[in-house]
Amino acid sequence: MHNTKYVFVTGGVTSSLGKGIIAASLAKLLQERGYSVTIQKLDPYINIDPGTLNPYEHGECYVTDDGAETDLDLGHYERFLNIPTSQANNVTTGRIYQSVIDKERKGEFLGKTVQVIPHITDEIKHRIQLLGETGDYDIIITEIGGTVGDIESLPYVESVRQLLWEKGEENAIVIHLTLVPYLAAAGELKTKPTQHSVKMLMQSGVSPDILVCRTEHEISDEIKHKLALFCNVKKEDVIQSIDAETIYDVPNLMFEEGLDKVVLGKLKLSSEKQPELIAWNNFIQKHKNPTSEVEIGLIGKYVELRDSYKSISEAFIHAGSTNETKVKIRWIHSESLTPKNVEKKLTGLNGILVAPGFGDRGIEGKIKAVKYAREQQIPFFGICLGMQMAVIEFARNVLNLEDAFSTEMKKNCKSPVINLMESQKKITKKGGTMRLGAWDCTLSEGSKTFAAYQTASISERHRHRFEFNNSYLKAIERAGMKATGINPKTGLVEVIEIPDHPWFVGVQYHPEYKSTVLNPHPLFVDFIKAALKQSKG
User: Fold this and answer.
1) Which of 47, 117, 360, 477 is deepest in the core (most CB within 10 A)?
2) Cα dist. 4→82, 122, 226, 272, 340 in Å?
3) Catalytically annotated residue among 61, 441, 512, 521
4) Measured CA angle at 302 (ends 362, 334), to 5 deg
């Protein structure tokens, strides 16, 4: 039987220390050493998934091939490991409680009082081990969201305590990520917050095996010794995680610190094969030494929180590296665009991307940005709502359908070029009911998208309720906008292009979700290539 090993990553002192990046970096190193690895995220919030959360609240909602709306950390996992994740890689408190309550209603606990321990913790343990039961993975890294000491994290920490006891110390370990702050007035790093964090973890019955310490300054041997002494770990188990220039530097930094070696030692696994990271470092080399620069305008509704567009900004980094080009993003709030200032705000851009989103706020600004890109012959990329805005702009200003709109924004518009999907019309619940996950698309030969993908059959991830209204397809195509990507089963228009424009592509799906370090997304690569051409005139 396949003996899957488990690594748990907890966080202390403060949130947003980068547990996801540490988990992904460790997984990358273990993968390079020849082990099959996956990562899962346990989120303590009571939402079933982040699908109904405002991007300002939680950053982007990341979608997997199997249609799960998940935490944005799963995007990091896929970008680092180059393997797809699934519903099983993201668990929320809401999902746990819903499952236990459903079982109680079915009568599975007849006669029993349903309690946090054992029922909730058993369900958490079951979810943690689901991926291991497939037998596909040597090591499963489980990142526990939130910070040790949070009330909502307690059932997860208790579940980890039980699993550590059940699996034994050679099969399950805990990495605790903390902050070692620098006090400028005292001129020194302080270990006390980490000591308190570890103490709190130990009060829950869990002792960390490894400490990873986020810091702005080098941690001396003396401080490592102090942390080891007061936190009950060996000195070599105290790993420094100093602030990095980019998240993609972290695997190399963790390798230098020996994190992967320490983990393998604790799990009694061979560490003979060294991580080479050849393709990875080749990517970093190109990323850090660009030969050109382009500026792309990202037109969005949530630009104040850039994590709302995390996958898009990372896809630009991957595509930029491939083209040996620095991609500067000009973040532009669509609400700020007016007929008077649109030229001033968009002038000098080498490409314009109109981003996804929901609702009617900032819509007219997005349409103005599309018009500017179309008329000024600037490379244009529209994603999901961005593609729909391109269709509306074209219908209004080229077909002269003044009332062209989407029924999402105006229910009774006279020219609904974007309409609610037939399958969505009877749906009343908002959560998890959109068209989600991977769907097939057939591309037209000779199109820009076909040239980028180099194939006619593609599969991409979706997250939408509204679609191109095929009643207007003939009129729109006669006027010069072509549907160059169609879903073979439903006839849904997936891709639109304007052939007599240097590069004008709108896609109903989300290509950014599939861009990784080792496989940059072809559409982003081609878009940056077009922007580069534009920059050189």
Assistant:
1) 47
2) 20, 19, 33, 19, 61
3) 512
4) 30
Q: Taking a C-beta distance cutoff of 8 angstroms, is the pair 33, 169 a contact?
A: no
Q: What is the mean pLDDT of residues 504-517?
A: 94
End-to-end CA distance of the chain: 62
To 5 degrees, how large is the angle CA 213–CA 216–CA 217? 90
Identified catalytic residue from 61, 213, 231, 384: 384
Residue 512 annotated to the active site: yes
Q: What's the burial of 422, exposed, middle or buried (CB within 10 Å: 0-12/13-18/19+)?
A: exposed
pLDDT of residue 298: 95
What does DSSP say about strands 504-507 and 493-497: parallel, antiparallel, or unpaired? antiparallel
46 C-beta neighbours (distance < 10 Å), count: 13
Report the b/e string of 226-241 with b at 16+ CB within 10 A. Answer: bbbeebebeeebbbbb
Give the closest residue to 85 by CA, choosing from 94, 76, 74.
Answer: 74
- Judge whether 384 counts as a catalytic residue: yes
DSSP-derived secondary structure letter, 220: P
pTM (predicted TM-score): 0.91
The Cα–Cα gap between 532 and 537 comes to 9
The two beta strands, 210-215 and 292-300, are: unpaired
* DSSP string computed for 46-76: SSSSGGGS-HHHHSPPEE-TT--EE-THHHH
Q: Answer yes or no: 217 catalytic.
A: no
Task: State which H helix or E strand residue 486 sits in.
Answer: strand 482-486
Residues 423 and 492: their CA atoms lie apart, in Å, by: 12
User: Out of 76, 464, 510, 521, which one is annotated catalytic?
Assistant: 510
**Six-digit token pair at 309?**
């567009």
